[in-house]
Amino acid sequence: MFSKSTEYALRAVVYLAKNSSEEERIGIKTIARDLGFPESYLGKVLQHLVRKNIIFSSKGPTGGFYAIPETLNISLLDIIDANEGLSFFKRCGLGLVECDDEKPCPIHDEYHVFRDGLYKSLSEKKVKDVLEDLESGIAFISFNEGVI
Amino acid sequence: MFSKSTEYALRAVVYLAKNSSEEERIGIKTIARDLGFPESYLGKVLQHLVRKNIIFSSKGPTGGFYAIPETLNISLLDIIDANEGLSFFKRCGLGLVECDDEKPCPIHDEYHVFRDGLYKSLSEKKVKDVLEDLESGIAFISFNEGVI
DNA sequence: TCTATTTAAGACAAAAAGGTCTTTTATTCT
DNA sequence: AGAATAAAAGACCTTTTTGTCTTAAATAGA
Fold first, then answer.
1. pLDDT, tens digit (0-9, with 9 covering 90-100), for B40-96
2. Max Cα separation, chain A?
3. A8, A33, A2: which is closest to A147 by C-alpha?
4. Distance (Å) from CA B8 to C1' C20?
5. Helix (H) and strand (E) counts for chain B?
6. Burial class (CB in 10 A: 0-12, 13-18, 19+), B100
7. Is the CB of B53 within 7 Å of strand D?
C-alpha cells in the first residue's frame, strides 16, 4: 500500500526514537544493518526526513542520525506525509477524478470508511505510542537482529 | 491503491456488463475510446480477463469483447484478484513479513479492521450491484462521453 | 592544520509498471 | 479460396520506483 521509501521511513524513525538521542547518534551503516535495509537508499530516505525536521543528523566523526524528544510526538501519518504525501487518503478507490460525496463512485462509501478510518488511526498514533506498545509487548517489529 | 491495470479492468468489466452481450460484441477501439484508456494497454488487460473467464471475446469481423449473464455475478474482488492477486489484503500495513495476530505490528489492529472491512465490501459487491447503483442514480462513473 | 569519518548530493543503474507497435491467428463474408 | 477484420501474442519503449556509487561538504580529534 505504501511505498518502500515510506516503509523504510516508518521503521527507521521508530528505531531512532528508541535507540538514539542528540548525544547518541547512529551511523547509517548501523541502522541499515540492524533494519536490514539497503544502506545507500535508506540514506536518501533519512536525508529526506532530516530536511523535513522529523529526525536530525550531524556529519563527521561521532556524527550520525538521531531523534529528539519532539520526535516522539510525531504521528505515523506525518511520516507518511513527509515521504509520499497524502494523496492516497484523497484519491478515489477506483481512480476516478470526478468522485466525491455528491457524485460517489460505486464503492465510494465502503472505501471511505476504510480510508478515513485508517487516516484517523495513523494521525492519532504517535511514535511514542508505538514505542509504548513495543515495550509493553502489545506489538512487535521483527528485525534481522531483533534490535527493536 | 490498486494498479492502473486493475482500475482499467474494473471499469471495463462494468462497461461490458452494461453495454455488451454474446450477440453484441464491442471492439477494443470503441471500448478504449469510450473509457478514455490507452487502446493497446487496455487490450492486454482485457485479454487477461478473457483468460480468467471473467469476460469473453471472439476474433474476426463482428468479433469483440463481451460479458455474459454470469459476469453479473462476479464480485469486484474477483476482478481485482484476476489482475493483481489479493496480496494487498494479506500483507502487513508496514510491510513486515512477520506480522500476524500472534505478533502484531504497531498498527495491526487498526489496519485489519479497515482492510478486512474493505475486503468484505468488495467481495459482496457484484457487478450487477454496481449496475443497479448506476442505474438508480445512487452511484456514478464519469467518463469521456458519459457512456456509462 | 591535517586526517579520518560521516552525512549530503547527485549522477547513474536496475527493476517494475505502464504503454506502444508489429506480427500472428482466428473468423466472417464475399 | 481470398480479402477484410478483430483479438492474441509478444517484442519493444517509456516512466517511475528502487537501489548503487562517487564526489563534495562538514566536523571531530590528533
1. 999 999 999 999 999 999 999 999 999 999 999 999 999 999 999 999 999 988 888
2. 58
3. A33
4. 17
5. 6, 2
6. exposed
7. no
Determine, for residues A139 and B108 on separate chains, whether the beta-carbon distance falls below 8 Å: yes
Kindly report, residue by residue over A71-122, the tens digit of the pLDDT. 999 999 999 999 999 999 999 988 888 889 998 998 998 889 889 999 999 9
- Give kind and range of the element (H or E) at residue B83: helix B76-84
* Cell numbers 443497479: residue: B132
Residue-wise pLDDT for B100-128, tens only, equals 899 899 889 888 988 999 999 999 999 99
Distance in angstroms (rounded) separating the CA atoms of residues B25 and A54: 56
Contact at CB, A133 and B103, closer than 8 angstroms: no
Helix (H) or strand (E) holding B66: strand B64-66
Establish how many alpha carbons lie within 13 A of residue A66's alpha carbon, considering only the half-sphere containing its beta carbon: 15
Options 1.10.10.10, 3.40.50.10490, 3.40.630.30, 3.40.50.300; CATH of B4-136: 1.10.10.10
Q: Which CATH architecture has domain A1-148?
A: Orthogonal Bundle (1.10)
In angstroms, the CA of A45 and the C1' of D15 are apart by: 21
Residue nearest to nucleotide D28 (CA to C1'): A61
For residue B111, which residues of chain A lie inside 8 Å, CB to CB? 118, 121
Question: Residue A141 pLDDT > 90, yes or no?
Answer: no
Q: What is the pLDDT of residues A23-66, one digit of tens each?
A: 999 999 999 999 999 999 999 999 999 999 999 999 999 999 99
Domain locations along chain A: 1-148
